[in-house]
Write a structure and sequence with these properties.
- The protein is mainly alpha-helical and 118 residues long.
- It has one domain: de novo design (two linked rop proteins).
- 78% of the residues lie in helices and 0% in strands.
């Protein structure tokens, strides 16, 4: 079994979850069951799928869960842009979150690519 805690992709995904939860607290209350819920679920899905993939015994299963994590990451990135365009985050906050998400995407894509070559 793989240890998810040793993966940089997991560290970044975990950081993104914590930051999104912190930022989403400030979203309007009428977004509680809308964007707030969606963006939190997408972010948690990234980290959770990395963890679940690491717990799988086959390389194919690991890759499948990493692919799901990557899709959830892109979903969260889009939702962050929506939050900014709606004025729920300021430019500095939006850019900081986008930077974390971009780095997470690069690292996760690199991991997926390296595993596909193996």
């Amino acid at each position: 079994m793989r240890d998810h805690r040793k993966l940089r992709a997991f560290e970044l995904a975990d950081q993104l979850v914590l930051e999104i939860y912190r930022v989403a607290k400030k979203f309007p209350k009428d977004e509680m069951f809308g964007l707030t819920s969606q963006i939190r679920r997408a972010a948690v899905s990234v980290a959770s799928n990395i963890v679940e993939g690491c717990a799988r015994s086959s390389q194919a299963d690991f890759l499948r869960f990493l692919d799901i994590a990557f899709g959830s990451l892109r979903e969260a990135e889009y939702q962050l842009t929506i939050a900014h365009r709606l004025g729920y985050t300021d430019t500095e906050e939006s850019e900081r979150l986008a930077g974390i998400a971009d780095e997470a995407a690069r690292v996760l894509a690199g991991l997926i690519k390296s595993l596909r070559k193996a």
